[in-house]
Amino acid sequence: MVVSFLDLPNNFSIAIVDNFYSETELKEIKDELKLLSAVAELKVFVNKAAEDEENNSKQKSNSFFLDDFYNNKRELSKVLNANRKLFSEELRTKLVEKNLFYDHIFNVNRDTTLLNFYKPTDYYKPHKDNSCFTALTFFTLEEFYGGDLVFPEYNIKVNAVENRMVIFPGFVLHGSEDVTKGIRVSMAQFLNYRAGN
Ligand SMILES: [Fe+2]
């Protein structure tokens, strides 16, 4: 796991974690993603994405929440178990050393996992998430081109490299450029506080 930061002009940053998962974890995750890509094609579970002013979806992709698919039974999914690694002490130490605000990630009491399968001509126009933080991790099922992650307010572009996780506050405008070839998979973990029980 190699953590680096893109500094923003307001004393905050976007965190980039390369080689986040071990080879064994990555293989397990991708084996399940292959099966889930077929599920995505069936469109039984469909994510309602952010919309523009004319109520058109800003996202073109096959996307669904893994929590819905597994009926919130995390134990059934290798992916939903592997992605607990986001809350590891190793990562916490590195992020909090940079900025204490990252400690929100380790204090939230609700996280959900959205899978996005982007094929050629698919995209997600710039939008904001309803999250305190979002952690986006990229995987390659079929070698792809395009699909860079963009932060238009800051003129930042991050290549969607397999096993790279990008962490940013959900209120920062972000989007995915068009995929031109192959299949780009991203796993979005939305981190939030939930009031009450
Ligand atoms: Fe998003």
Write a structural description.
The chain has 197 residues and is an alpha+beta fold. It has a single domain, classed as Jelly Rolls (Sandwich). It is built from four helices and twelve strands, in the order E-E-H-E-E-H-H-H-E-E-E-E-E-E-E-E. Strand 8 and strand 9 form a beta hairpin. It is globular. The relative contact order is 0.21. It binds fe (ii) ion.
Describe the SSE topology.
Elements lengths: L1 E6 L5 E6 L4 H20 L16 E2 L1 E4 H4 L8 H5 L6 H10 L11 E9 L4 E5 L5 E14 L2 E3 L4 E3 L6 E5 L4 E3 L2 E14 L5
Antiparallel strand pairs: 1-2, 2-10, 3-6, 4-5, 5-12, 6-11, 7-10, 7-12, 8-9, 8-11
Summed up, what is this model?
The protein has 197 residues and is of the alpha+beta class. 20% of the residues lie in helices and 38% in strands.
Index terms:
197 residues; 5-stranded antiparallel β-sheet; alpha+beta; Jelly Rolls
Give the structural class. Answer: alpha+beta
Bound molecules: fe (ii) ion
Quickly give the CATH architecture.
Sandwich
Give the low-pLDDT segments.
none
Kindly report the average pLDDT value.
92
Range of strand content: 35-45%
Helical content band: 10-25%
Major sheet details? 7 strands, antiparallel
